[in-house]
Amino acid sequence: MLMSNHMKKSVPSMITKVKARQILDSRGIPTVEVDLYTNKGMFRASAPSGASSGMYEAIELRDGDKGTYLGNGVSRAVRNVNEKISEALIGMDPTLQSQIDQAMIDLDRTEKKESQLVFTRPLLHFSNLFLPLRESAFWEFFFQGELGANAILAVSMAACKAGAAEKEVPLYKHIAVLSGNTNLSLPIPAFTLLSGGKYAGNFLPVKQIMILPIGARQFEEALQMGSETYHHLKAVISKKYGTDGCSVGEDGGFAPSITSIREGLDLVKEAIGRTGYSEKLKIAIDVDATEFCIGTKYDLDFKSPNNSGQNFKSGEDMINIYKDLCADYPIVSIEDPFDKEDWEHAKHFSNLGICQVVGDDLLMSNTKRIERAVQESACNALLLKVNQIGTVTEAIEIVKLAKDAHWGVVISQRSGETEDAFIADLCVGLAVSQIKAGAPCRGERLAKYNQVHTLPHNSQLLRIEEDLGDQAVYVGDDWRLS
Ligand code: 2PG
Ligand code: MG
């Protein structure tokens, strides 16, 4: 027995098999799931997928065959894992994350150095010029990597889980070691309470109104505050808009038929008022302004069928709107307050220092754009979407970039999620100050929050807060520092 244990240890640790398959994400759209095998067992990860995409991010590979899953199938990405990536990784040590990621990056580049521009439909009509760019037939083309960010990321995360198992440490600790981080902390959750923008069928122009439980003492308490406020909000909405006002958007936030940001904020304020935590909960908004930027103007009525065209705002107007909102409500963070190319207003607003200004579409988790934003002070927090950067190693690097600039860091869900809780461990391992994983409701969102949280007696595997015990430090009041 002793002998065989000894022999087991001496077997060199290596990846023995990588197998991908197509699964469906939370929107019912295909995505890539990977099972990566080592001498220690099988490790599974899946890639999320979002609505916003563009020329600066790592691009997921989709089949484009409109007859199958409306063109969203990922069988080519799956094949890339099963054939090319698998061949490149078999035999590698799963603890060597950066080498694994580099092998995939190299493989992608040997095949095709740059993303490929693929046209799926010709430009249709001159009138498209007047639509927001992402609405237009101009965008019937997309940039496509060779292997697919969906293929690469799922393998990268599965390998990271395998590396942790190899070292016999929890995933977050493995990530901390990979990044050289010695301070573990549990992030502030940004819970979506109201959904709007492209996420919901109401007329609320902004994408999400969220709460941040900065006054909680532990993550567990933060989760309780989020859940209770969510349910108080449900009651408030039911009373005002009827139960059909309680249908939810893509990341679980309620989507009553409200038309303005203030109407939404008033609902949230009322719900917060019912909790008894008023001082402990702050508000964050993801404006996602790129969605309603037309030329140099912002159309706050962009979702209204009776849009009179009278509610167009200039960048300056938007700054004034944000100033007033921050004065009237406990708003501490605004994400994408301007179009992704409106650097001037972003700089101006950010320099006012009124609140945390988060760059999502502005940065697209892209190193060059982050460097520019740091230099120009166009925002003061990074929103990191792992599938936009593509590998765990690159995610670690850009978080460092943001931390070096003394920015906040929010690690974020995508609208299309899976039950994979990887980002929870990533947040703790990198000690970033905020996790944005949607509402405190719906399985694919709770998978992340529950992973950070203590769930005593509920799992054979320890959750992070439980595992850290007395050493668990909830970010709380220090949430701005990452
Ligand atoms: C965002 C993200 C996540 P998507 O804008 O912050 O909520 O959305 O994944 O659709 O790009
Ligand atoms: Mg966003």
From TrEMBL:
Entry keyword set: Glycolysis, Lyase, Magnesium
Residue ranges of domain Enolase C-terminal TIM barrel in the record: 183-482
ATP-binding among keywords: no
Pfam family, one: Enolase_N
Keyword Lyase: yes
Enzyme kind, highest EC tier: lyase
Cofactor (UniProt): Mg(2+)
Entry-linked Gene3D superfamilies: Enolase-like C-terminal domain, Enolase-like, N-terminal domain
Domain Enolase N-terminal: 15-175
Pathway: Carbohydrate degradation; glycolysis; pyruvate from D-glyceraldehyde 3-phosphate: step 4/5
Alphabetical list of InterPro entries matching this protein: Enolase, Enolase-like_C_sf, Enolase-like_N, Enolase_C, Enolase_CS, Enolase_N
Similarity field: Belongs to the enolase family.
Name the UniProt record assigns to this protein: phosphopyruvate hydratase
